[in-house]
Write a structure and sequence with these properties.
Blueprint: E1 3-12, E2 15-25, E3 30-34, H1 41-49, E4 56-61, E5 64-65, E6 76-80, H2 91-101, H3 106-119, H4 135-148, E7 153-157, H5 165-182, E8 185-190, H6 193-199, E9 202-207, E10 210-215, H7 217-222, H8 227-232, E11 237-242, E12 244-245, E13 250-254, E14 257-261, E15 269-274, E16 280-282, E17 288-297, E18 301-308, E19 311-318, E20 331-335, E21 342-343
Parallel strand pairs: 3-8, 3-9, 6-7, 7-8
Antiparallel strand pairs: 1-2, 1-4, 4-5, 9-10, 11-15, 12-13, 13-14, 15-21, 16-20, 17-18, 17-20, 18-19
Bound molecules: adenosine-5'-triphosphate and magnesium ion.
Length: about 350
């Protein structure tokens, strides 16, 4: 099922919480909505499900305008952070609930429930009450309950937020695999950038009710459109630079290194970004001298804050590298490649 949102707005009293949102989601695609708390992710999801009205705009499923359809006519299923399961029913009864409401024959229901229980790996727990399950198992029941009705569209609202880190990682892999297998068009809301990168075909980054950028995880990370996206997805060192001209080229100075920029940039200043993993340390020689100001051990990497003149920058070293043992106060040199300086398109 293809989804198209055309100029969607939502206003509560006098406050616009979703502002002119347009996007297309392809059949079978998993689109992640990523953004800080209060940016309008849940509101947008609930408008797509038909649970709240839209103030302005259009929602199309396979080119059919469903904007005025009630939720039951849209054939979407939702998976929530708090599971929203029936505590007095067991696993099997929770999963079959939607099928019973649809009055399917009992034998058909048993067959469908057994199949879905297998695919979410809940075999053996069919008769358990919800209180007798772990968080991860509860979320599998919620997922099975959503999948069993064979929805055209799956909507996830921070489904993994209540789980611990390890379980979140394994559940997000299960969700992605199942979504791939079943090919159900999905929208997945999260404010966790790592989860977004791992699960998405494409990510829509939102802030204050507006779309900032919509692209593949790789594109968002490598070529963020503005400083909000650059800082929200991953770590970013941002520099405001004066654009300079010589006879042939436009360029900027980043730590006194001349970086050529495209001639079609007409702004007087631009924001340049360097990711922390693109800065390299040399202990003995280099063009840019700095001092280790702060150090954080993060397991896979060590994250340093390096003071260079008045600037403080973030720099990541793999713990496998020879430079992960620097101490605060140590003098070092840093370097970076010209291609690792990314010019953001918008301020
Ligand atoms: N029923 C309502 N009446 C008035 N304002 C509302 C209502 N529902 C949501 N809002 C406001 O709309 C904005 C967007 O809320 P929404 O729940 O969509 O954010 P969110 O991105 O899902 O945030 P979170 O990550 O915290 O879940 C918030 O400022 C919220 O206070
Ligand atoms: Mg929300």
């Amino acid at each position: 099922m293809k989804i198209k949102l055309e100029n969607i707005c939502k206003t509560y009293e006098n406050t616009q919480v979703v502002k002119d949102v347009s996007m297309k989601i392809e059949d079978g695609e998993i689109m992640v909505l990523l953004g800080p708390s209060g940016c309008g992710k849940t509101t947008l999801l609930r408008m797509i499900a038909g649970l709240i009205s839209i103030t302005q705009g259009k929602i199309l499923f396979n080119d059919v305008d469903v904007s005025s359809f009630p939720p039951q006519k849209r054939n979407t299923a939702m998976v929530f952070q708090n599971y929203a399961l029936f505590p007095h029913l067991n696993v099997e009864e929770n999963i079959s609930f939607g099928l019973k409401v649809r009055k399917l024959p009992t034998s058909k229901i048993s067959e469908m429930v057994a199949k879905i229980i297998k695919s979410v790996e809940l075999e053996g727990l069919e008769k358990r009450k919800i209180q007798e399950l772990s968080g991860g198992q509860r979320q599998r029941v919620a997922l099975a309950r959503a999948l069993v009705i064979k929805p055209d569209i799956l909507l996830f609202d921070e489904p993994l937020s209540n789980l611990d880190e390890k379980l979140r990682v394994s559940m997000r892999q299960s969700i992605k695999k199942l979504q791939r297998e079943l090919g159900i068009t999905s929208i997945y809301v999260t404010h966790d950038q790592e989860e977004a990168m791992s699960i998405a075909d494409r990510i829509t980054v939102m802030n204050k009710g507006e779309i900032q950028q919509c692209a593949s995880p790789n594109e968002i990370y490598r070529n963020p459109k503005n400083s909000f996206v650059a800082s929200f997805v991953g770590q970013a060192n941002l520099f405001n630079c004066q654009v300079q001209n010589n006879s042939k080229m436009k360029y900027i100075n980043v730590f006194n290194k001349k970086i050529n920029i495209k001639n079609d940039i007409n702004d007087e200043t631009v924001t340049a970004m360097i990711r922390p993993e693109h800065l390299h340390i040399d202990k003995y020689k280099g063009e840019v001298e700095g001092v280790v100001d702060f150090k954080e051990e993060l397991g896979l990497i060590t994250r340093y804050q390096i003071k260079i003149g008045q600037e403080n920058i973030s720099l990541d070293e793999l713990n496998a590298s020879e430079h992960h043992t620097l101490v605060v106060g140590e003098k070092i040199f840093i370097s970076f490649g010209d291609n690792d300086v990314v010019i953001l398109k918008e301020q």
